[in-house]
Structure formats: structure tokens, C-alpha cells
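Researcher: Here's a chain I'd like modeled. Treat it as a single chain, no partners, no ligands.
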Amino acid sequence: MALWRRNPKYVNIVLKDHAIRYVEAKIGNSPEVKRWGERPLPAGIVRDGRIIDRETLAFVLEECVEEWKIGGQCVRFVVPDPFVMIRSLPLPSHLSDEEIRGYLFMELGESIPLPFADPVFDYVVMERTNESLSILLFAAPEEAVSEYAVLLEEADLRPVAADVSPICAYRPFYVAGQAGPDDHVLLVQFDESAVNLSAFHRHLPLFMRHLPLEERERATALVDPFIDVYKEIERMMSFYSFSLQQGKQSITRLFVSGDHPELEHVFTALNERLDVSVERLSAPFDPLPDRFHLAWGLALKEGRADDDR
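Model: Modeled as a single isolated chain. C-alpha cells:
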């Protein structure tokens, strides 16, 4: 038996339609990024999270593992947004904490409808009283998640956890102290190929909306190519206020992150257009370019087991 055990190194990988990125970090009282890297992906290999050209993607991923010297390490990855469902659910109040998972195994796809078969899932208890029980459910099709896990295994990595991008993107803001439990936050993940909108309260994502982006011209002084996205953001803010909160609460802060090359322009435009505080990750806790924030948030998962964020 070994007298000294080395903690395993964790690599945190994000596979987008247009890029593969990774971050290694030292997590503790003062989280520190140790290494990071990225590799652009040619168009058409991955589309809306679906692997179209598996052979080429496997070859590129193997090259990345060799170049970044991460072979044999434990890896966390992000489930592509188009596959993810986030939904609040009422459950029978008599269920104990130990019984919830078994109940979901039995009822998902039966009395609890899903847009796909054979889900993998996780959940958080949102509220429990003597009369009621509600959870926040995270689900994705097992086939899609397994396809990415097998791809990573074949590239000499050891998949140990999968996460969803809204929580990963929110986590750096949370750890930086920019998000309080009473805030009503709209998180805007503005990427090169899609925009993801998710509303958070008490540090939990209450809904998610995924918007694929078409090829767009760069912003000009006359026409902003993202005007429809801004309108959708405003619609989601109204939906949150009047449908989810019955007009009693509204979005109080808006966090912006992502890898779109026009992110600075988007940030400025939203500041001018909206009446709420529009923020990016604060400088003291921003060790990497914006496009790495998702992988950075995945790395920060290591130190948040105490509160599941």
C-alpha cells in the first residue's frame, strides 16, 4: 500500500463546433490557472454539438492530447448545449432524499416527459416543505454524452465527470463574488456559433435558451448584425419577470461571457440598450481570455463540492 497518494490531475476540456480548449488549474483558496490551450476546428466537423466527422475529430483530439501532454489524465468535459435540458419539477412530497433518484429513474420518459429517450441526469433539491417538494433537473441523451466520453477515452484520457455550460460559465462569477443569492441574473454566453441564455437565482439556473447563430457580417456603424439576439435577450428578461416570477421579480444583473470575436461590441451594445447592470468577469479573477472562461469554470468545479456549484 502506498504511503503517499498523489491527487489525480484533472484536465478540463470544452469541445465547441469551432474549437477545442483545455485548462489545467490549481484549485484552493486562491485558484490558479497552470496551463491552457486551444485548437481551432474546421467547419463541418461538429455542427450544433453533433459530431459529423468523427474520424477527423478523433485525429485532431489525439493531436491535442499529445501536444498538450495530457495523456492518461482524468478529464471533465462540458455536454454540448443543444443536448441539455434544464427544468424545474414538482415531485411527491413524501419522497426522502434517498428516494428521489430512484423515482426519477422510474418516471423520466414515463409520467415525466422528455424530448429524448434514455437520459442521463442529475438534480438539485430546490425547495422542500411538509406539503411540497421541487427539484431542478438536468438531463441529456445518454447516446450523445457517451459519444463524447468514448471519444475522449480513445484519445488516452479518462472521463470522470460531465457538466453543463450555464453552471460552468456562471461559476467564475460566483467564485469572484459578483453574484449574490438574492440576485436575479441573466447569463449571456455569446459564442462564435451560438448564444446561450440562462437565468439564475440563488445560484441555480432556472431555465436555458439556446440560439444557433448564422454566419454574420462584422458589426458596422450602420447595422448591428446581432439586433435579433438583443431582442431575444429582452424577450427572455420579460419571460423571466412575468412568466416565471409572476411580475414580482425581474432580472437585476446580466453577465456576459463567450468566445465571439465581437464580444466587446456586444458588451457595449447591451450596456447601451438595457437598464440593468451588464458585467463581465472582474479583472482580479480573470486570468484568461474570455474564450477560456467556460473551461476555467469547469476547472473551478473541483473546489465547489461543498455547495454543488
